[in-house]
Every structure is written in structure tokens, then in C-alpha cells.
Amino acid sequence: MPFPFDITATDGRARTGVLKTPRGDIRTPAFMPVGTAATVKALTVDQVAQTGADILLGNTYHLMLRPGPERMERLGGLHRFMGWTKPILTDSGGFQVMSLAGISKVKEEAVTFSSHIDGSKHVLTPERSIQIQADRLGADISMQLDECVAWPAEEKRAREGMELSARWAVRSKAAFGTRETQALFGIQQGSTYEHLRRESSDRLQEVGFDGYALGGLAVGEGHAAMCEVLDYAPDMLPTDRPRYLMGVGKPIDLVEAVWRGVDMFDCVLPTRAGRHGQAWTWDGPVNLKNARFAEDQDPLDASVPCPASQAYSKAYLHHLVRADEILGKILLTWHNLAFYQALMSAMRDAVAAGRMDAFRSQFRDRQVSLG
User: Fold this and answer.
1) 153, 154, 159, 160 alpha-carbon torsion, rounded to 10°
2) Is residue 33 a contact partner of residue 88, using CB atoms and an 8 Å limit?
3) 95 falls in which pLDDT band (50, 70, 90)?
4) Per the residue annotation, which of 91, 146, 210, 253 is the catalytic one?
5) DSSP 3-state of 318
6) Left (φ > 0), alpha (ψ -120 to 50) or beta: where does 213 sit?
7) Which of 25, 146, 210, 266 is catalytic?
């Protein structure tokens, strides 16, 4: 295992620790801001770093289409290209197999798809996905290529996707080989079927990965159904390796998942919400478009250690949002990512202090809509 993972404290099923990489430590639980096209939308890498983020996520599908993996390699890889010196995890392109189902075809050998940019044809195999992520982009953590099955899924369809993902896991691991400064994560699939996720987990562990992800969630099943899966799915994975819940989510989703033993997360929600006038706070989401904030001189959330949270009134942010000013998108995105990092820090402290149950209960009680 190239990256030591030290679990420093547990509280029930919740854990806190450090995943050590050559480019820096990743404190867990960790939230990874999404840098889809070599940028976290609306922010500089310095602003992202100031929020407390230890790691970013890059998107293989989008980067392979533009600017292209071979060009990325010639330009020094993703870190150098975007100016981010800390770790980067790249997804495999598997989620786009589902989300772009209308322009993609999945077969045993590969996924073929048409570019959403110019209609050009592309082929993505497990081997090509690893080549792009690890060799061309230079990701610190690469993900196996998988098939993410849309929800709802009948058991037969969920099994097909799980079994294909398991076979692709073998091919991804063979293509990745053994590396000293890079890691590869496998992805558990199986939709909402417990026995399929058990089988998926067993097959992944037979192959052996540096970390394990829970895939096929946050695809429409809803918070309650997701939590039902998380009641059992993380415990099927090795206790001594990181567990990564892909594409999640709202703050309450993160708290519930950490309470159930998940270590890593990514989601576009905080950046997307910020661009559309929504801020996340300890007391719930705030819609800055609403007229009630037109003369509100209080800061957005003085408890969040970020200039966007502390130095600007809600009245000013309301004005920026209503006027569709670029600065409004920047400030709300900055705040949202800072809040998410503050939330992860608070959960790390809660687990270390043995009070995760109380933290979870209090957080759930405070989450209401603030307009």
C-alpha cells in the first residue's frame, strides 16, 4: 500500500485519521472540492487551499475531451497545469457512462461515446482510463473504471453492472500495476441490494486496492435510501483502508455517512449552489435571492473562517446575486467550500473527542431552511 492510512480515533463506526501521500497529508473525514475541467469553478487554487481543502477531484471524461490527455502530459500533468500542489484524485469516467447514457454504449471491452462538445467518437477501456489518470494526468489517486447503474434498478440490471465493474476492476488493477507514489481505488457497486454489494466487496478485496469507494449512490435514490445502504455497505470494506462515498452530498448526507464509517467525499453541490445564489450554513441553506436579505447587515456566517463568510453583509451578497454579478458567484462558492471544510474539521474533532453521536443529533436539529 503506497499511502499509509493512520486511523487516530474512532467513535462508534465513525473514524478520523490521516491518509499520507507524497504531496501532503489528507485529513479524514475529508471533502474533495470538484475541479471538473482543471478548475474549481469561480475560485483560484489559492482560494481553494485557504478553505482548508487537502485534496481536489479532477474529471477524466472532461479532461480527455478538452484539452486532451496527451496534451496534459506534455504540459506537465494536471498538478502543474492548474497550479495545485496538493493531492488530486481523478474519477474514472464511469459516472458519465450513466449520465450520458443517450450518447454512450457499454460493452465488455469498452465504453464508446460521442463527445458532448463536438460529437467526436471516443473509446474508454479500463486500461485507457488508468493510462489517462495515472500516466497522462498524473493523479495521486486513480479510480478503476466502473459502470454506475442508474436508480431505480431491477436486481438483474444491478447485478449486470456490478459484475461488469468487478471484471473491469481486475483489468484496471492489471493496467495500474504497482506504484510507489500513486494509489488506485476500487469501487463497490450493487445499487440498493445488500447481497450484491457484499459480492462486489468480496471480489474487490480479492484483487486488492489501496482504497475502496462506494459507488452507485446519490443517483436519485434519496437520502433515506442512501442511509439504508450505508447502514451496511461501509462495513463490508476493509477497516484499514480509506472508504470514499462518491458524489455526496448535502451537509446532512456527509454527517450521516461519517457517522456510518465513511472517510472521503466529493460533490459539485457547494460550488453549483454558490453559483446559483445558495449558501450553506450551520443552520441550513440560505437563498440569497430572497428579498428578506435586502437590508440584512449581518455577515453570512461569522463562525466560518473565510473572508467571504465574515467580511460581506447578506445585503451586499443579495445585491450581487440579484444583479447577477460575477463577484456574487465567487463569494458564495468560496463560502460554501469553506463551510464544508469547517464541517469536516468539526466532525474530525467530534470523533476524536468521542462525541460524534451528540454532534450528529445537534446538527440534524439545526438543519432548517433559512429562506
Assistant:
1) -80
2) no
3) confident
4) 91
5) helix
6) beta
7) 266
